[in-house]
Amino acid sequence: MTPGPPTTDACSVVIIGHVCIDENTGTDSGDNAPQRLRRTVGSPAFFINRQLQAVAGVTVSVIAPYGGDFLPVMSAAPPAIPLLNPATPGGTLLYRNHIDGDVRRQQCFHAENADPVPVTATYARALAAADIVIVAPLLANFTPEYLATALAETRPDALKMLLVQGLLRRVDDDGTVGQRDFAEYADVIPLFDVVVFSDEDLQKALTVADEWSRDFFRTTVVVTQNRNGATSFDGGVSVHVPAEPLERQGVGSVIGAGDVFSAALAVSYRGSGDIRDAIGRAHEITARFIDGELVAALAA
Description:
α6 (205-215) links the parallel β11 and β12. 31% of the residues lie in helices and 28% in strands. The radius of gyration is 18 Å and the shape is globular. The chain has helices at 44-53, 70-75, 121-129, 144-151, 185-188, 205-215, 251-254, 257-272, 275-299, and strands spanning 11-17, 20-28, 31-42, 58-63, 94-100, 103-109, 132-136, 159-163, 169-171, 177-179, 194-198, 220-224, 230-234, 237-241. The strands form 3 sheets. It has an 8-stranded mixed sheet with strand order 4-1-7-8-11-12-13-14, sandwiched between helices. Strands 3-2-5-6 form a 4-stranded mixed sheet. Strands 9-10 form a two-stranded antiparallel ribbon. With 300 residues, it is an alpha/beta fold. It comes from Subtercola boreus. InterPro entries: PfkB_dom (IPR011611), Ribokinase-like (IPR029056). This is Carbohydrate kinase PfkB domain-containing protein.
């Protein structure tokens, strides 16, 4: 993919991945009082869609497995996710998060109901019309074969972005979420123009990103570094883009921030073709998101 010049033309975004229901309990950001159970929509697809719905000229479609229990939860957390596929039997992927300040303990349920949605002719047409395709799985059940089949439907000039985090997760029999070895990376990374992950997702994240960028020189690798900004790698050449420091603390305050960053990065990079500029723009938008979440939390 060769990003085009800045444009105000309409932009079609298709997100392939998972949606989920989050059940969040615990304390956050210096407030030690126990919090009531909060049952809401989660997933990168949710936060990316919410961010892009506010961008003029951008339309979003989502292809993700879900059950009938997802729809009433989604209706309580607008904007609605524009799902292309219908619900299937069984419960929606459920993440139970217990948050204590900067520590989050997590369990996952209904993973057996979250297989990738088969690429039908209808979904193939949506992918063929997309300017940006963002793959954002929450589980490591998106095989290289499935991804290659889906991305084969896209135009050569479409920007294809992967959010790696879900491919680094395993779910044990008791629902505990842990880290897995991304053994299939060599078959997955070259399918994308940009891959994004956090330095909290992998040990020696910057070293891994550098190696991936050297091995797959057509792919730009971006590592987000929380308050330290982000670093991009192209063919082993790194560019660090700092972020303005924020006072907000706690895991709960930044849930979804990485997804907002990725959404802004995709749109900005497709427009400018300048990864440094796109990261800087994504930092600005993410900071506004975090500030907005703080205001909403104080008003609740």
